Amino acid sequence: MPTITAGLNGLGRFGLHLLRAWLDLPDPPLRITAINDAHHTLASAVRVLSEDPKVSFSDCQIRADGDALLIARHGQATLRIAYSHGPAAHAPWLGQTDWWLECSGAHPGALQCRRFLAGQTRRVLVSATCHDADQTLVFGYNHESFDPAAEVISYGSCTVNAFVPLAHWLQRHYGVDNAEVSVIHNVPAHRLANHPHPERRACTLETEGPRLLPFLAPAAFRVDYVLIPYTGVSLIDFRFGLAMPPSEAVLLDALDTACASGELKGLVRLSPVNAGPQAFALSPESVVLLRPRARLTGKRLVLPACFDNENSATRYLDLLAFMARRGG
Ligand SMILES: NC(=O)c1ccc[n+]([C@@H]2O[C@H](COP(=O)([O-])OP(=O)(O)OC[C@H]3O[C@@H](n4cnc5c(N)ncnc54)[C@H](OP(=O)(O)O)[C@@H]3O)[C@@H](O)[C@H]2O)c1
Known about the structure:
GlycerAld/Erythrose_P_DH; NAD(P)-bd_dom_sf; 7 helices; NAD binding; alpha/beta; oxidoreductase
């Protein structure tokens, strides 16, 4: 039985993907023992888990029992997860788990998160950019620099995880002089009515990229981000100015090897086909690059891609599992 206990605050799109990915871990090094959500009652959480059109829990029997969510799976002990509905600060289990998994989006700053450091709870892991977190750890890039003294840790964001390990790999092999990212980001179905038109937005990757990657000057990096009224898998295109590129074929073959068996394995996929975004739903990689659309012209590398932004919860879980195995 894992010794580290965690409470999940936020059963929105991210929390749902996280719960599914955690259930799928063959040997989980942490236990989710409590869930709080500001929007879903226990009854509606049971409904969401039973009926979500994308994240399937069809291998589980899910029901409510008193104040708990019960998840039963064939051949496994039934999981009993304390469930509460309301503001996070009123969760009856506050202070009773080792970690607080802050996945609601309602507490974006470290100061707000520190109030969850009560009782037994010694760490808050934020599922989004948190500029004043003690550490931002991007799995596959700098997670090894985990400081056990850090109390509030951000995992980055979906776009940070899609960009940073890839940019770091390109820098190490060919040198990166500048980069641009264009994001076409989806909207969850429950928010569609509030976003009837495309909206240009600032993206936290624009500040986090240069902050995490010392070789990337803020003036040499730009992100254009558009939220569109669409619920499917999102799109992300990268453009890099490389210092010393080889030929296009050599670069893409090296990238293919890095994705298949090298340092980008599990983080980035290079798809040999230019499939539509929905083909990459639930992809466990942070981003899927489309090889037929990739091109290198002189020193300019263009990498069109798709990413299941919600399923970036798998990177968050990779980070949690790593920290838990390091002793929490
Ligand atoms: N989704 C992603 O692609 C993604 C990727 C990486 C990181 N994150 C981060 O993870 C955090 C949570 O994001 P999220 O995408 O999980 O948020 P979400 O699904 O939009 O849930 C957040 C809020 O939306 C409302 N809501 C949730 N489910 C609802 C439903 N079925 N019907 C109506 N309203 C509902 C609730 O707030 P109200 O009831 O108060 O409206 C809820 O607190 C954020 O910090 C986000 O930046 C998200």
